[in-house]
Amino acid sequence: MQFGVMGAMLVAALEHKERPSVGLLNIGVEDIKGNDTVKRAAELLRASGLNFHGNVEGDDIYKGTTDVVVCDGFVGNVVLKASEGVALMIVSFLRQEFTRNPWRMLIAWLATPVRRSLRARMDPGKYNGASLLGLKGIVIKSHGAANVFAFGQALERAVDEVRNDVPQLIARRMAQTAAVPVQ
C-alpha cells in the first residue's frame, strides 16, 4: 500500500495529475487471484483513499491501464529485466530480417524514417533515472550504462522532484494514510 501511495504522489507531482490511478500487479484481474500478500495489499489499497483501479496484469503495464503499477521489488525487477530483454530481442529479430537478402535490405533502407522514429521512442536513455522513494531526500539511480544524454535525463528527474517537493508530498500523504484505520 505504501508503494502505491509513493508512486501516486510521484505521478501527481511530476505529471500534474490530481488523482493518478493505481493498479496492483497480479496474475489476474479478479480479486480472488494472487497470494495472500497480494490480496492483503489490494485490501489496503482499496481502503487507502487512492484512486485504486484494482488488479492489473503484466500487459496492462504497456497498455497504460493505470498511471502507477504496484508490486514488490523482486517482481518489479523481474518485470523490468524481462521487458529490457524482449525489447533487445525484437530489435535483434528486426535486424536479422532486414539483412536476410538484398530486397529486404532495400525495404530496410526505405523504412529508415520509421526505424529512426521507433528507435527514438524506445530510447531507454529518455527514461533513465529511477526514483528511490520513501526517503527524507531525493535519490535518483541512473543505469550503469547511461551515456551523457541519459545521465542528463536522470538529473532532470532529480530537479523536477526538488521543484515539486516530492519527499514532503509523500510524507504528508503517508501521514494521512497512517491515520486512517483499516478494517
Radius of gyration: 20 Å
- The total of helices stands at 8
Secondary-structure element series: HEHEHEHHHEEHH
Q: What's the overall average pLDDT, rounded?
A: 93
Dominant shape: globular
Q: Give the biggest sheet.
A: 3 strands, parallel
What is the CA-CA span between the terminal residues? 14 Å
**What is the helix content?**
55-70%
- Proportion of strand residues: 5-15%
Class derived from helix and strand content: mainly alpha
| Strand line-up of the largest beta sheet | 2-1-3
What is the strand tally? Answer: 5
The residue ranges in which pLDDT falls below 50 over 5 or more consecutive positions are none
Describe it for me?
It is a single chain. The protein has 183 residues and is mainly α. The protein is 58% helix and 10% strand. It has helices at residues 2-15, 36-47, 58-63, 73-98, 102-110, 112-121, 148-163, 166-178; strands at 21-25, 51-56, 68-70, 130-131, 140-141. The strands form two sheets. The protein has a three-stranded parallel beta sheet. The chain has a two-stranded antiparallel ribbon with strand order 4-5. The protein is globular. The mean pLDDT is 93.
Strands, helices and their partners?
Layout: H1 2-15, E1 21-25, H2 36-47, E2 51-56, H3 58-63, E3 68-70, H4 73-98, H5 102-110, H6 112-121, E4 130-131, E5 140-141, H7 148-163, H8 166-178
Parallel strand pairs: 1-2, 1-3
Antiparallel strand pairs: 4-5
Helix pairs in contact: 1-8
